Each structure stands twice: as C-alpha cells, then as structure tokens.
Amino acid sequence: MISAWLSTLSADNHAEIAMGSDPRRRVPRTDAVLADPRLVEATRTLGRALVKAVVADAQQRARDGEIDPGQVADHAVATLPRSAATLRPVINATGVVVHTNLGRAPLSQAAIDAVTTASGATDVEFDLETGRRARRGRGALAALAAAVPAAQGVHVVNNNAAALLLTAMTLAPGKEMIVSRGELIEIGDGFRLPELMTSTGARIREVGTTNRTHLRDYADAIGPDTGFVLKVHPSNYHVSGFTKTVPVRDLATLDAPLVVDIGSGLLSPHPLLPDEPDATTVLRHGADVVTASGDKLLGGPQAGLLFGTAELIDRLRRHPAARALRVDKMTLAALEATLAGPPTPVAQALSADVDTLRARAAALAAQLPGAEVVDCVAAVGGGGAPDVELPSAAISLPERCAAALRTGARAVVGRIEDGRCLLDLRTVAPEDDAALLEAVRACTS
Ligand SMILES: *Cc1c(COP(=O)(O)O)cnc(C)c1O
C-alpha cells in the first residue's frame, strides 16, 4: 500500500519522465471506456452501476500491470456478469428430485411463462370487465379449489411455515396446541416446528412419547385451553419398530379443531409414494385445516397452501397478519399454471422410466471419452419420502470433475459417490441433455 502511494508520488514528481512510459498513465478514462459500443449495450441491459464497477476493476488491473492498458475495454466486456442478479442457472444432476439448496422444485415452462406475463402490470386484483377491484389471486385460488374438491375453502401464503404460523395465530392465541412427542420435528437448517409455533404466543401441549402416542393421550389433554390438535407428517425421517401414531380419522373424532401439516404438498394420492399423505385423503378423513408447501412434490413456486372448512379458512384469511404473509403476483401466476398446466418437471422426474434414463446416459457417454454409464439410486428429497428409492442411471466421471462442472460456464451439480462424480439423469430434464454434454466436454477436454 505504502509503496504504491510512494510510487504514485514519485510518478507525479517526475511526470515528465513518466508520461508515455508508465502504464498507469495510459489507463483510459472511465468515460472513454464506457463509450465502447459493447459497454453502451451492457449499460442498457445491466445498468450503469454494474458496468462501471466492472470497468473500474479492469482499470485497476491495468494500473497493477496485470493487463495492458489498451485491453481495458476488452477485459471489462469479458468479465461482465450475465445478468443484473447473481443467481445462476444450475443443471441438477444430483439425483435429488426436490433439492432444497438448488431452490426446490424447478418450474414448468407453463409456470415460467405465467410468471413472465404476471411480472408486468396485471389484473391480479382488478376486474377488467367491470373496472372494479377484484379478489386477489382468484385464478390461483380457483385452480387450487378445483384440484382439491374436498376443501370448502383454500388460501395461499408465503410458505408452509407461514401457513402454520397463521393457523397458530388465528386458532390458538394464548391457548394450547396439542402435539404428539413423536412429531416435534426439525425440518432443516435448524428450523424447528415447535419453536415456530410457540413464537406466536400459543403454547405446545406435548402428549404421548417419542415412539408411541394413543388417542386417549390426546383426549386427556383436551380442555378449555385447547386451541387445536396438530398432526405433523414427519417428512424427513421414519420411525420403525414399536411405534404407534393416531390416524387422522381417529383424531377427527376428538372435540377440538384438527390441523394436519402434510408437508410436501401432494393434493391426491401418488402411486409411487404410498406413504406420503395427500390433502384430499386427509380432508376426507376429517381434518379441519390442512397445510402444505407449494415447491416440494406439487412442483410449483414457494408457497404455503391452506385447505379446510369454509369457516376456518375464512377466519385465517381475515386475520390481520394474513396481509404480512401474502404472496406476490408472480407466485400466484406460477401456482395457477402449475395446477392447470402440463405435468411439472418434478412429476416427470418422479415418473421417468429407468430404461429411458439408461438410454439417455448411454447416448451421452458415447460422446464422452472416459465416461461410463452406471445404475444408481435417486431420491425424492425436499424432506419428503425418505424411504423411497428411485432406480436411476448416471454418467460416472472422475471425482475431480465435480468442482470443474460446478464452476463451468453452465453450472452442473452432480453427486460424489465412492470416489466418482455421478451425473444422475433422473433429475436432468431431457431438453438439458445437450447443455449437459457441452458442460462435461468443456471440463474434461
Ligand atoms: C417442508 C416442511 C415444512 C416447511 O415448509 P416450507 O414451505 O419450507 O415453509 C413444514 N412442515 C413439514 C412437515 C415439511 O415437510
């Protein structure tokens, strides 16, 4: 630092000597660099501040002698970010269908198109026929009601955690929520359901034991302080052996509202996931309110879905805090298109036929010297169906490829297994095969 300052001083003192020979003197001025047509165009798409920062970095490199002053504009162009946001697209080759760290469910093209449309001015809360205010998100709510006819009422909030929060605030202020000790769960990243629920001021009344809870445990706990009975699907683990939980249809006989958190958002039974609860069945069995996530098995945007009796859903919707938990127009658009549109990428990944996956892997490996095709096992993920093993096929590469693939021009995330980098095709959309091939070629050549 000091030597740099001293050298600046000496350059100033001996300007006549430095002129023309000192590269720092030849670093072009910011305005001159920004006038480069390529950077003018970038300023239009990325904004002036981002482009200026890139130019300043290039100028500094020239001052430091790392690049030639004549290359400042070229260097700036080469290091421009791809977009004004730093989130980058990733090819999910992990074999985990709903990968939380990769943003859970990828949206269908129908949902992406709906988001693009809704991102401008839109009739989200306006009736174009009458010119009056209309119910916000009525299209998404109608699609949700059509998908779950067993629900008298539906509502959408920010995520499942928000759905639970709203339920606790509305149905149990200053009261108790009765929960089995076997269902006091931590979901991920230190997020504990009991802590979330009690943050509203409602109290948790634990009943039963870790492995066994009986109907009479709940019945004995019900009293004037009861807000509701809560049943939570322990979505990310499985207790086996000497266990007992009380089915929804039995809990529904108790003299208290029954709230069921089904977690992953199946709306009706899924043939491949027999142990995952679904909203329709749980409502038919007598639940008063059901909560679920929108971006797990439903395959839609982050959202909290609420289904239930007309009376309770109406109370939830009218709670003052509902406003703080409401979703954006883009979420409503993506949710509606997910429900009404073609099968989602999550549904396609779950149902993909393993022979088709093997054939895709073989076709790709044939064009990649050194790559092998291996059989492997994919998972549902997103804290869902922990026992389900999905037969799959992968391209197997040397382990060192994993880092190069992550940081390449088109980021690919695989998984490391037995010292190999596996690219599991179950979670790669078939239309991404060409991009996957190019990404692997770029880092193995
Ligand atoms: C995932 C999950 C949640 C949290 O859902 P978010 O949509 O991430 O807020 C809550 N309960 C269960 C059972 C879950 O599986």
TrEMBL record:
<keyword id="KW-0663">Pyridoxal phosphate</keyword>
<feature type="modified residue" description="N6-(pyridoxal phosphate)lysine">
    <location>
        <position position="296"/>
    </location>
</feature>
<dbReference type="GO" id="GO:0004125">
    <property type="term" value="F:L-seryl-tRNA(Sec) selenium transferase activity"/>
</dbReference>
<comment type="pathway">
    <text>Aminoacyl-tRNA biosynthesis; selenocysteinyl-tRNA(Sec) biosynthesis; selenocysteinyl-tRNA(Sec) from L-seryl-tRNA(Sec) (bacterial route): step 1/1.</text>
</comment>
<keyword id="KW-0808">Transferase</keyword>
<dbReference type="InterPro" id="IPR004534">
    <property type="entry name" value="SelA_trans"/>
</dbReference>
<feature type="domain" description="L-seryl-tRNA selenium transferase N-terminal">
    <location>
        <begin position="24"/>
        <end position="63"/>
    </location>
</feature>
<dbReference type="Pfam" id="PF12390">
    <property type="entry name" value="Se-cys_synth_N"/>
</dbReference>
<dbReference type="InterPro" id="IPR018319">
    <property type="entry name" value="SelA-like"/>
</dbReference>
<dbReference type="GO" id="GO:0001514">
    <property type="term" value="P:selenocysteine incorporation"/>
</dbReference>
<keyword id="KW-0648">Protein biosynthesis</keyword>
<dbReference type="GO" id="GO:0005737">
    <property type="term" value="C:cytoplasm"/>
</dbReference>
<keyword id="KW-0711">Selenium</keyword>
<comment type="function">
    <text>Converts seryl-tRNA(Sec) to selenocysteinyl-tRNA(Sec) required for selenoprotein biosynthesis.</text>
</comment>
<dbReference type="Pfam" id="PF03841">
    <property type="entry name" value="SelA"/>
</dbReference>
<keyword id="KW-0963">Cytoplasm</keyword>
<dbReference type="InterPro" id="IPR015424">
    <property type="entry name" value="PyrdxlP-dep_Trfase"/>
</dbReference>
<dbReference type="GO" id="GO:0001717">
    <property type="term" value="P:conversion of seryl-tRNAsec to selenocys-tRNAsec"/>
</dbReference>
<protein>
    <recommendedName>
        <fullName>L-seryl-tRNA(Sec) selenium transferase</fullName>
        <ecNumber>2.9.1.1</ecNumber>
    </recommendedName>
</protein>
<dbReference type="InterPro" id="IPR015421">
    <property type="entry name" value="PyrdxlP-dep_Trfase_major"/>
</dbReference>
<dbReference type="InterPro" id="IPR025862">
    <property type="entry name" value="SelA_trans_N_dom"/>
</dbReference>
<comment type="similarity">
    <text>Belongs to the SelA family.</text>
</comment>
